[in-house]
Amino acid sequence: MEYNSIITDFWAEHGTPEAERFVNLSMDIIDEIHQALEDKGWTQKELANAVGKSPAEISKWLSGLHNMTLKSLVKLEIALDKHLIITESVATEKYHNDIKMVSFGTIMTNEIKDANYNSIVVNNPLKVVYKKAS
Q: How far is the C-alpha of 58 from the C-alpha of 87, rounded, in Å?
């Protein structure tokens, strides 16, 4: 896809690994928040009320470039009743190696073949989550 190529080329020329990781993690968290809002049938205003913030502050948080604190993330997790961040060791313990995450550049989903896993989520063209096949 040309759009992915533009992003990849930009990061190769201007980005630092830290900046790229920050943006990727921020967008992953924002995707999770939006999905949780959809699941709950909430608006951003309702989320703002639940965490005691103004709708403008929530809009800023959901821009994807705001550097949220761990306290803010915990408030969001409690309000949404959803984990937004999880460590590898906790994920391994909780899911018993039933899932794996593959992050990659511009590889398309149909180019990844692994007989032991089935694709279950493709929210982001740069990330695919696989669940162990039965």
A: 24
Q: CATH code for 2-80?
A: 1.10.260.40
pLDDT in tens, the chain (134 residues): 455 666 677 767 777 888 878 888 888 899 999 999 999 999 999 999 999 999 999 999 998 778 899 999 999 999 999 988 888 787 777 776 665 554 444 434 444 455 554 544 444 444 445 455 55
Between the alpha carbon of residue 7 and those of residues 2, 3, 86, 110, the distances in Å are 9, 6, 27, 20
What are the boundaries of each domain within the chain? 2-80, 88-132
